[in-house]
Amino acid sequence: MRFGLASRLGIVLALSGMLSAGITALQAQRASETLLVDSAHAELLTSTRVLARRITLVREDLSRTLLALARHPAALAALADDAQAATQLATLFALPMEANRAYFQIRLIGAADNGLELVRVDRDGDAPLRVDGDALQEKGHYPYVFDTLALAAGEVYLSRVGINRERGSHSALGRPAVQLATPVVDAAGTPRGVIVASVDLNGVFTLLAADLPADFQLYLANSAGDYLIHPDPARTFGFDKGRRVRVQDEFAAIQAVVDGRAGESMLDSAIGEHARAPLVAAFIAARAQLRTDEGAFILGLARPRANVLAELDPLRSIMLQIVIGMSLTGILIAAILARAITHPIEVLGAAVQNFSGKGEAPALPVERQDEIGALARRFAELRTQIGQQLAELEHRRSELEHLARHDALTGLPNRALFDDRMAVALAAARRDDGRLALLFVDVDHFKPINDRLGHVVGDRVLEGVAARIRQCIRESDTAARVGGDEFVVLLPGVASAADAARVADKIRAAIDRPFVIDGHALAVSVSMGLAHYPQDGTDATALARHADRAMYRDKAEGKAQGRG
Ligand SMILES: Nc1nc2c(ncn2[C@@H]2O[C@H](COP(=O)(O)OP(=O)(O)OP(=O)(O)O)[C@@H](O)[C@H]2O)c(=O)[nH]1
Predict the structure, then answer these.
(1) Using CA atoms, how far apart are residues 526 and 513, in angstroms rounded to an integer?
(2) Domains along the chain with CATH numbers
(3) pTM of the full predicted structure?
(4) Cβ–Cβ under 8 Å, residues 142 and 126
(5) Phi-psi group of 470: left, alpha or beta (phi > 0 → left; psi -120 to 50 → alpha; rest → beta)
(6) Which atom of ligand 1 is nearest to the CA of 455?
(7) CB of 443 closer than 6 angstroms to any ligand 1 atom
(8) Could you give the ipTM of this predicted complex?
(9) Which one of 283, 413, 433, 455 is CB 3.0 to 4.6 Å from 300, fit for a cystine?
(10) Of 19 and 426, more confident
(11) What are φ and ψ of residue 154, in 5° steps?
(12) pLDDT (tens digit, 9 = 90+) per residue, 531-564?
């Protein structure tokens, strides 16, 4: 397949149109992706902060509850082995547990007797259940007991997050738990015991995160970065199973938050273990303003990157339509442009092809004011010049052709042309059984005219003789000059010898009239000889010989009679 200039130009223009449309679409998509990821980061960060704030509110709510319970007279009374007070306190413990399903245990633990549990309410399924008697245990060795006993009245202790291994009737065994505790102080300011609430961490977060969008993934880590909550439960509490599964190992960008160098960190993970399912996430360090062994919690929310970018899908389809539309427009414009450029070139090409042709030359775009217009004008000038030169050449060629077949002085056919016509006339006569006559005419005593009056006058005489011979014959006859003062006349289709003789007489009579040259009358005579086809010869040579002889006979007779 041959590609013309227009096709190639069209393809280049169309491809560049498509390329620029594609690049624009790609850039627009990248910019949109960045915008979406930034917006997702902002949303995730806000949600993480809201979540952290809710946790604080839950903790503050529970702290207030614990402080109220610690100040209640029943607490000190129960510590003094008042059974009625203990029962009343158990009833009070049950109230917040009924209100919040994440609270799975509230206890009053005495400072004496190795921290023996005095009042204990566990969650048993939905309902709070008082545990009493032998089921009560000594808890003095737990930090939440001895650390809390060291606090002043009104202060709240927050434990590290750990897996709950305390045996009891509550259903939170083996689940992540945290303890909040406050001391119960007597009138002298001596801590007599502690009130401890155990909170199911997952329960709290399940409640708090319930209204987050379904694709939000929750991450919680302790101050060292160990996962406490992770979308994959197998990765939580690694330290409890003798291995470290840490947030900064999964997301290197979070290291600064874990180290306390940054309060928050955004990440857009598309590398490492998230290469297949990249995430967009925001992490913050949430610090509790409490007496606690835990410096801060690392709280994070993440969304699959694919979900974030799903909002681009309609935009992508619009961009695809735009790219296709622009590409088609580009192809159309390219085709029109290519045609606009190549059409004048085709016109110029056709004009070149038509240069010497007789047909109508195509109109050149000379009126254009661009390079093509300049080229067309130059070409038109060139065409005119070459046309003129060609016409001149043609004129000269026809002149030369005429000269080659005619006598320069008289304008009559020369011998070559006469021979051709003779051959044609003879062929026609032979075919039609026709007749023709050949007449030789020779000027008498021409040499003396030349000698006496000069060659110029001699030439005028020869011109005059030729003109008069021509006036005496038909258009179908041919008169030719075949020698200095020798003429020959071909009379094809002559009806009879008498007709031919009449033509000869007519010529003689015409030449016998004096020639007036430069005011002088000059008498000229001619000698003539006739030959007839087929009687006197059947070919040109025989006929010429016959006519020549007849002419010499006539000349001899003429001289004998004193003619000329
Ligand atoms: N002016 C002129 N003279 C020519 C031309 N061609 C031939 N002649 C002359 O014509 C003359 C012909 O002479 P001849 O053949 O002897 O003819 P003539 O003198 O008529 O003699 P006869 O035919 O015997 O009467 C010569 O002197 C040539 O030089 C020509 O073109 N112009």
Answers:
(1) 11
(2) 58-211 (3.30.450.20), 212-310 (3.30.450.20), 324-402 (no CATH), 410-560 (3.30.70.270)
(3) 0.58
(4) no
(5) alpha
(6) 1
(7) yes
(8) 0.94
(9) 283
(10) 426
(11) 90, -10
(12) 999 999 999 999 999 999 999 999 999 887 776 5
Cβ atoms 59, 288 nearer than 8 A:
yes
Q: Which of 412, 443, 446, 522 maximizes ligand 1 atoms within 8 Å of its Cβ, making it the mutation to test the pocket? A: 446
Give the integer Cα–Cα distance in Å for 167 and 525: 168
Q: Is the CB of 445 within 6 Å of ligand 1?
A: yes
Q: Which residue has the higher pLDDT, 249 or 276?
A: 249
Q: What is the mean pLDDT of residues 443-464?
A: 94
Residues 221 and 227 sit within 8 Å (Cβ to Cβ): yes
Contact 5/345 with Cβ under 8 angstroms? yes
Q: In this structure, what DSSP letter does residue 246 have?
A: B
Per residue in 400-436, pLDDT (tens digit) is 999 999 999 999 999 999 999 999 999 999 999 999 9
How far apart CA 121 and CA 442 sit, in angstroms, is 165
* 171 vs 79, higher pLDDT: 79
Q: Is the pLDDT of residue 352 over 80?
A: no
Length of the chain: 564
Alpha carbon distances (Å) from 363 to 40, 347, 349, 367: 66, 8, 12, 10
Any atom of ligand 1 within 6 Å of the Cβ of 554: no
Please, are residues 465 and 453 in contact by the beta-carbon 8 Å criterion? no
Our answer to whether residue 132 is catalytic in this structure is: no
Specify the DSSP class assigned to residue 417.
Answer: H
**Pocket of ligand 1 contains residue 455 by CB under 6 Å:** yes
Output the CA 560–ligand 1 centroid distance in Å: 20
Pinpoint the alpha helices (H) of 72-141.
73-79, 83-99
Taking the C-alpha atoms of residue 166 and residue 104, their distance in angstroms, rounded to an integer, is: 12
State yes or no: pLDDT of 2 exceeds 60: no
